[in-house]
């Protein structure tokens, strides 16, 4: 039995994409907001996975957490549209990095890893940023954008895992599950 400790429809779709059979449960545990990006995402992935694993024996629980990093700043989901505007204004025209942490928990055992993807965003004018915010896409996404959505016209280049940016690095997850003794090979 596998549980994805997530409320994210994107993570659910990505895990379904690789033919995995699983249930979803949402963790409401308090998350870390600041720090070194890879440490933040791995800590939060573990917080989510452990929270759900505490309720399920002999179950592989998958937790994940995504942030956008630029210089020393770590961006999670925006609080409101003003926050989304300021994040997008900062990311406009900039090379930045998207981190997703993974945590697998099975009874009292833990496996952790993270993936990082480089994203080059084109310049966005204030009018373009405001129009993008009106689509509603930014509100529940780290960094206030969804690479799989309308922002795609401003993504000049992406280096690394695409699924990592969307919220679940599938190759890293496959490898980590193998280390934990589980096969996610469903082809
Ligand atoms: C950067 C980026 C993020 N995202 C999403 C993935 C995550 O759902 C979200 C980051 O927030 P998270 O806090 O990682 O996840 P979540 O709150 O949506 O779900 P849960 O904690 O229950 O697992 O941003 C995209 O969909 N596309 C993108 O391009």
TrEMBL record:
One Gene Ontology cellular component annotation held by this UniProt entry: cytoplasm
Any Pfam family the entry gives: Maf
Enzyme Commission number, as recorded: 3.6.1.9
One record GO biological process: nucleotide metabolic process
InterPro entries reported for this sequence: ITPase-like_fam, Maf-like
Molecular function GO terms recorded: nucleoside triphosphate diphosphatase activity
UniProt superkingdom: Bacteria
Catalysis: reaction(s): UTP + H2O = UMP + diphosphate + H(+); dTTP + H2O = dTMP + diphosphate + H(+)
Principal EC category: hydrolase
Cofactor(s) annotated in UniProt: a divalent metal cation
Active site positions: 65
Primary subcellular site in the record, as a coarse category: cytoplasm
Annotated site location: Important for substrate specificity: 10, 66, 148
Keyword field: Cytoplasm, Hydrolase, Nucleotide metabolism
Cellular location(s): Cytoplasm
Stated role: Nucleoside triphosphate pyrophosphatase that hydrolyzes dTTP and UTP. May have a dual role in cell division arrest and in preventing the incorporation of modified nucleotides into cellular nucleic acids.
Family per record: Belongs to the Maf family. YhdE subfamily.
Name under which the protein is recorded: dTTP/UTP pyrophosphatase
Gene source species: Pectinatus brassicae
Lineage, opening ranks: Bacteria, Bacillati, Bacillota, Negativicutes, Selenomonadales
